[in-house]
Amino acid sequence: MAELFAQIQERYTAETQKRLRPDGPAQFLNLEESDNDRLRHLADDPWADHEALDAVEPPITQGSHHKFLIIGAGISGLVSAVRLIEAGFTADQIRLVDGAGGIGGTWYWNRYPGIHCDVESYIYMPLLQETGYMPSTKYASGVEIRHYLNDVAKKYKLDDKVLLRATVNSVDWDDSANAWKASITASRGAKGATKSTITAEAEFVVLTSGLLSKPHVPKLAGAGLSQFKGELLHTSRWDYNATGGSSENVFPELDKLNGKRVGIIGTGATAIQVVPILARHAGELFVFQRTPSAVYQRGQRDTTPEEWDKITQPDKWQYARMENNVKSITWPDPQEEDLVKDEWSRQKAYAAAVGGPEYSHVAPEQVPQVIGHFLGLDNENSIRMRARIAAIVEDKETAEKLTPWYPIWCKRPTFSETYLPTFNRPNVHLVDTDGKGVSGATETGLTVGDKEYPLDVLILATGFLAPSTGNADPALRAGVKVTGKGGRTLSNKWETQGPSTLHGCMSSGFPNLFFINPAQAGVAPNQAHAIDVQARHIAWLAAAAHKKAHGIVVGKVAVDVDTQAEEAWAMQCVAGAARFATFTVCTPGYMNNEGTALDMSDQAALFRTARATPITAGLLKYQEILQGWRSEGALAGLVVTPV
């Protein structure tokens, strides 16, 4: 057994080395920033009803003043707004801004065939306890989630408080007004053809950009992917005019693909869901793979009223279920029944990516021991997964190419009953690039090495800007220039000083600015849980500051962070950074910023990266720390000034 374990580790190392590239994350192109019209327009909004939006009175106008300006109207933005309302503020005091033509964030943009959440919907869909909504299946479809989020906005009277098709370019702190001045570009007309700049004021700003919000594509030689003259689309902006079907169907009929040669680049979480549907319609389907995904059984099923009644019996059932799920995955011995009972619950080694009580404090000399521990914890699970692939995929060579050779925490695991059997179909061809990726594009197809694959339609399931880019700079991810006291920008602070926060959601020198962010906070496989922990804390902070200044939640107040408290919090994160040396054994990907996140050659950059470390003991410990701090009532580390 020890010999087999050693052989597996050697294979992991070999696969990692063949995928390392000197250009790292620079091998990708952000679609929105492309200087090629065709590629840039792949990021356009295909879903906006411009006529209906033009008929609506905008909730933010030139010179308007608002209590809260929330940048983003996805799950993070909506949950932040709802928690503020529960803390004593009103919907009328809140405005949200989003570049999309509708509410939902990730679930507005991503409407590719077969899209579902990969975490149980009972713990992923926010505010279920508050709304009383019952998801139709254990893993809800994107269609259902999108409609549900719109219903949440209506329930809390936020649907008419969102300025859509708008981009916040900058927010600047005005000391004299004790408020943020926001410069917003708003669009009107077909495809947002008419643009105007609005200057508005907000006492508080909340940055809530999601982890996966900026689609990117691989850079290829010459004019890149734009050289291809056939139909071209990115999965985050699916073009049903090109494929047939409708975004309102979970499993649409893609009749326009009948008989066509279809290529898809990418074999990550998106491709796992869309490939089986493409295979049913395409004449031939070519799946271009750089790194295979770990594919486990999903276990989809309908939600029955009887099951739902049992799930919702306990008081505060959803939060209890969320916490139970984190314990099942990241605690070595949860000592309580696993309520979710899915494949996520069996991924014990995933704690290497998100933290947990085990090895929460690691000295540098313990790093080999920690890595060995989690590799051992993952070994049996990985063997089981590889055996599943071998049992399902009939062609042995294809099965081997679909088999991942990296620890489970290096790339988000996927779950499907249909992906692997798809490669038994005679019209489906796996094009494995041996870790190198696609070589180039021609007018009629793609090349891998010296071989060209002729295509009629090319689909890009190539993912998004990595969450760790810029050490998870919240301003960079939101695409907003944030200028605080003394003219310093938040991005400059992040770049030169490294991530600097109190509790992962505020930064000194940027009064009344909050952000939902993974750096120096708690993370978990269920991002919706992590979002809600921070949103609740932010709402509490805002309300507590008002109460300290005025006795009740009224009036104006300035809330900043004490620099010593901020640095103490950062050093607490740095002290645990060795815990995440587990990523040094990973294949390049978005989890480790294409292998550059732990570059040992630049010690200054490595220290800044260490400051971005999440709370190593995990999300529940982070939540416990916040709750303890709030219960003390002293607002330690904050500077609260009545205005």
From TrEMBL:
Tagged with keyword NADP: yes
Coiled-coil intervals, chain numbering: none
GO MF, any single term: flavin adenine dinucleotide binding
Transmembrane segments: none
Xref: InterPro entries: FAD-binding_Monooxygenases, FAD/NAD-bd_sf, Flavin_mOase-like
Gene3D superfamilies: FAD/NAD(P)-binding domain
CC cofactor: FAD
Superkingdom classification of source: Eukaryota
Keywords: FAD, Flavoprotein, NADP, Oxidoreductase
Pfam families from the UniProt entry: FMO-like (PF00743)
Family designation: Belongs to the FAD-binding monooxygenase family.
Full protein name: FAD/NAD(P)-binding domain-containing protein
